[in-house]
Automatic annotation (TrEMBL):
<keyword id="KW-0677">Repeat</keyword>
<dbReference type="Pfam" id="PF02493">
    <property type="entry name" value="MORN"/>
</dbReference>
<comment type="function">
    <text>Assembles a suppression complex (suppresome) by tethering SIRT1 and MDM2 to regulate composite modifications of p53/TP53. Confers both deacetylation-mediated functional inactivation, by SIRT1, and ubiquitination-dependent degradation, by MDM2, of p53/TP53, promoting a proliferative and cell survival behaviors. May play a role in the regulation of spermatogenesis.</text>
</comment>
<protein>
    <recommendedName>
        <fullName>MORN repeat-containing protein 3</fullName>
    </recommendedName>
</protein>
<dbReference type="InterPro" id="IPR052472">
    <property type="entry name" value="MORN3"/>
</dbReference>
<dbReference type="GO" id="GO:0001669">
    <property type="term" value="C:acrosomal vesicle"/>
</dbReference>
<keyword id="KW-0968">Cytoplasmic vesicle</keyword>
<dbReference type="InterPro" id="IPR003409">
    <property type="entry name" value="MORN"/>
</dbReference>
Length: 217
């Protein structure tokens, strides 16, 4: 009985190309049309897992966690210094849906830096801000502004403790004038003290006390 050989079905070449194009698992560097590049893990053609992204236009580098194509989890973002070309950290911390979310530290070009909580890319929750002039604010934040309860310590060690709103002193608070040994306790509105009581506070230890003590009422 003769043996009949049937021709093997050939698969269209584009099927093989399509399989190779599907990115899943760990891949070497993949380049985008605009010159951006990514090295790391994929799932269903989306960056997912651990990976490093380099943006050609800015030179920025993100190294950390990804979830369905977006920065999500823990990671750091750095940019090159315009003069030295050395990479400087901009943000180290947690991300969600491509935005800073959770605890993280940001370094600003002016030399200031913030460490604390974030929400949707904005400082929100508890945090500490180190300003360029040496002042330090520690307390609550809302939508990138001090809001709630917090303390601002000035370079001369004078400090304010109390309420804040939209980045300004607001509500009950205390201002300690440690340089001259006085304390103002009162109510602030939009950064301006509206009413309060001024008393001596540590006047004997103050470096520059007032000439006369405040008389008792």
């Amino acid at each position: 009985m003769p043996i009949v050989k049937h021709p093997r079905a050939t698969e269209p070449l584009w099927h093989e190309w399509d399989r190779k194009a599907q990115k899943h698992g760990l891949r070497h560097t993949v380049y985008a049309i605009n010159g951006d590049q990514y090295t790391g893990e994929w799932m269903d053609n989306l960056k997912h897992g651990k990976g490093i992204q380099v943006w050609k236009r800015t030179g920025g580098i993100y190294s950390g966690d990804w979830k369905f194509g977006k920065r999500d989890g823990y990671g750091s973002y750095s940019i090159p210094d315009p003069v030295t070309k050395e990479y400087k950290k901009v943000y180290i911390g947690w991300w969600k849906n491509n935005k800073k979310c959770g605890y993280g530290v940001t370094f600003y070009p002016s030399g200031e830096h913030y460490e604390g909580e974030w929400s949707c890319g904005l400082r929100s929750g508890w945090g500490r801000m180190y300003y360029r002039d040496g002042s330090i604010y520690e307390g609550q934040w809302l939508e990138d502004q001090p809001s709630g309860q917090g303390m601002l310590r000035l370079p001369n060690e004078n400090r304010y403790e109390g309420g804040w709103k939209d980045g300004k002193k607001h509500g009950p608070g205390k201002f300690f004038y440690l340089d001259n040994g006085q304390l103002l306790e009162g109510i602030w509105a939009a950064g301006i003290p509206k009413c309060g009581i001024l008393i001596d506070f540590g006047r004997d230890e103050a470096p520059a006390p007032t000439q006369y003590p405040i008389p008792k009422v």
